Structure formats: structure tokens, C-alpha cells
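seq/struct pair 1
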Amino acid sequence: MDGIRDSVPWGAIEKAAGKYDFSVPQAAWLDQALQKGLAVTLTFANANALYDRGYTVYSDAGREAFANFVVATLQRYPNVSAVEIGNEYNSNSFVTGPVATSSAANRDDYYAKLVAAVDSALNRAGLDVELVGGATHSIPVDYFADLKALGTLGLLDAVSIHPYTTPPEQFADQIEVLRGVIGKDMAIKVTEFGANFASLDDAPAYLAKMLSVMGDAGIESASWYALARQSYFPNMELWNTQGASATPAGEAFRVFDSLLADADVIRRSRPMISLTCTLSAIMRRCFGGRRVPSAWRRACPPMISTAIGSPTSTAGFLQILRSS
């Protein structure tokens, strides 16, 4: 693992207008992460009771305060790699007040103005940081089309998506449609992926599939959700905090992190037919001529094999990916 995506609490840090206290416990993780050399993506999606009645900012004054907080945070933590504006702004899960009750068209306008305010503030402060936007739930092509028309995509270094509603087998097609709107050169980050698994044992196979299709689709980076157990989604975590041990997803993550560390590309190979099952995909990871294929069948348990010859990797694959 070489990166982490998280946030710091605006309301706890700015309790008096224009005064920032980054010594709050909720921000302690950030210094530690940066000291360890992790690439940190900071998501800014919080509200603050000082502005716009504590709702998601919707006024010019609220957006200015939001942007000033972004600037203050980056001045305090200059080694942050990227900032992501909003979190699933196209849904109702993380927005409140007038933004939440607005029409779909106005939702786009609110977001476009927020990104513009942050971009202007960063430029005035002379801060050079990767600006990531969208952070959408699913892959809402029309939403991105509206943001393009509003000029928002032109301000961003990358767009981000959370493809929770996209099965791995449909991911490539949906990204191709999205590319038709945002263009082939715009970087795409998957800043959250995972699923609401019935069991922790269901996560590794999904991770294997998604890594394969995301790599083939040219996704710049991807962040698994979540690191620790979430109360509403109890089978998605990489780490068991009570037992201080990796979950099945965490073990799979470790194996793939090792295998992909020196990978140049991930590419889709020609479909293959097995005796009794149709392969829905077969991926090839290239390591200077060495290949690590992963394949899964629509009607059969997934399988994965490796040509690298590492006993740990091979055994890990076969053990971790037994469940579909």
C-alpha cells in the first residue's frame, strides 16, 4: 500500500471564522501518514456550522470559506498529493440543505461553483496540488456531461468515481461510455470501490476481478473501501482492528500489491472457452515479458494462476480466490 484517502473535519478545525486548529485528534493521522511517505488524497466534503447554517455550502460566502479551509489545510500539510472535492455529490448521502433538495440540474451548478471556488483559491495561494473532482456514486455519464458543459472538467486534473453499482464484467463498457464524454486523456481515479458483501470471504474474488478490469480500462489509481470495519457495511474492511490482523480482503490486497508492484500494464486477452463454462474475462499482467493471467467463469468458481513461479503468490491466489 502506498497511498491513503481520507479527510480532516472542517467543523472541528475551524470553530471560529478564519481560525484553524489542526491539533485536533481527528487530524493526527495525517502527519503520521505523510511521515511514512504515503501518497495522501484528502477529500473535502464536510460542512461547518459557521457557514450556510451548517448545511453543505451553497452560497458564495460558504464556498469561499470552504475553499479557504482547503488552502489552510494544504499550507499546514504541504506534502498532500491530491485534494478531492466532494463525496458522492450526485447522491443524497453526503449533501444536506438546499443542495440536497435542489433539482438535478441545480446540483451540477452547485458543484461546479464549488470546484471553481477551490480552484481560484488554490491559484491565489500559489498552491500546486492535483485537483480531483466528481467523486460520484456510480458512473453517472449525464452528470459528467453537465459538468463538462459548465467548464468544471477543464479545472480538474482527474475525475473520480465510486463504481458500486457496476459489476466487474460491465466496468469496461461503462468506462468507454464515460470516456466518450470526458475524453480519452482525462485521468480517472476510482477513489472508492468494494461491495456490500454477505461475508468477508466474498471480498477477495471481487477484488481480483475489479483490479483486472480497472487496470485494463486505464484507471490511474484505485482505493478500496474501507480500511476498517464500517457499521453500515460490516464486511468490506481490509483490517480487523480488534484482532489486529488482515481480513480475507486484506490478505488478497497484500498479494496483489506484491504482484503488481513492478507491473507495466494490465491488458485484456482474447476470450477463452472452457469445457463447461464460458470465461467472462481473462486478464494478463505483464512484468517484462512474464505474464500473470487471472480468469473467471460466469457459472463456475473463479480461478487464478500465475506464471511468475512464486510459491507464496501462487498458493495465495489459489487459497484466497476459492470463493466466487
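seq/struct pair 2
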Amino acid sequence: MKLNIIVIFLLITGSVFAQEKTLLSSNITSTGWFGAPVIKYTSLNEKGSVIVGARGGYIINHALIVGAGMYRLVSNVELSANKDIYPINYDNNLHLMYGGIEFGYVINPMELFHYTFNTLLGVGNVSNNNIDGFNENGSDHHTGKSFFVIEPSAAIETNITNYLRLEIGLSYRLSTGLNYTYISNKDLSSFIGFLSLKFGAF
């Protein structure tokens, strides 16, 4: 079911870009840019979590977007650990960051309310201070594990001013390639509700 949703999102984005090829092959009539703080609410390791970040991009003909985004977990998501080895009060929280390139398309961008579609393709890193133990001096040492991420999204956007837009939407983060003891690709893959405030020259 989740894989089908990912495929549908990718097909929508792909078909939009296919349509845009004709537009680009004729003339680029306008270009712009935007930047946006983003807040996301999702599930990680079956726990409600908040992720914050920022994204930005280059806008072609008011509709086609090529950009990038970076996001970081700010909620405390505790992972299992061996209490016989690690102190009870030791940091046992998940540390997560991910980001990558983003491709998007805006339908009817001049309308007050309109739809946006976006897909992030990138990499992430997870770590936990407890999983690799202690060195000879009693200090912790840990190595993060990397994974690939695909995050398609769909949103409703409203034009607040000529230079400011509010976007509310739903995405799905698909994690793959992670080989980590205390959290799996399944634990990292989840639906996301997000809100972003975009400013720029649209």
C-alpha cells in the first residue's frame, strides 16, 4: 500500500515534468526564487515527533521548481539500550538529519489557492550516543549510519502577498538502505504533515 502511494506520487511528478519539457523548449518567460522554514509532524519509531528545517529553490515560469532542503529531528525519541552497560541517565535519544535535492511543480500559481507537488531525493544520517559503547577513557563514541530517503509530497498553497506564501500539506518519507541495530527503515518511514512559510520572488 505504502509503495503504491510512493509510485503514484512519483508518476504525478514525472508527468508534470514531462509536460514542462515543451514549455522549456520554447521559452523561459520568467525566473524566481524562494526560501522557506518548514515544520513537520511525523512518527519515528512509533512515536510522534517534530522535525524542523528549511528549503529553497529556483522557480521557472512561476511553476517548475528545482531546489534543496535540509531537516533535523528536534523531539526526544528514545531508543532501546542495554541498561546493564549504559547509565540510566545517559542520552539514549535518536539523532536524525536528512536532506537532498527537490523537484516540484505548482498548478495555477497565480490563483489564491493552488496545489503544489514536490519530491525530495536525498540521504540522511541517524545516530545514538549509546550504541557503540565507551572507549578506554570512559567517553562515549558513536558512529552515525546513513540511509537513502525519498519524500514525495502534495500540498495546498495560498498567496498571502506577492512575496509570501503559506503551504500546508502531506508527504511520505520512505527510508531505504539503513543497516542499524536500534531503528529500522520501517521505523523511519512514515506519513508527515507539514507547514511551510515561503518567501521570495514567485
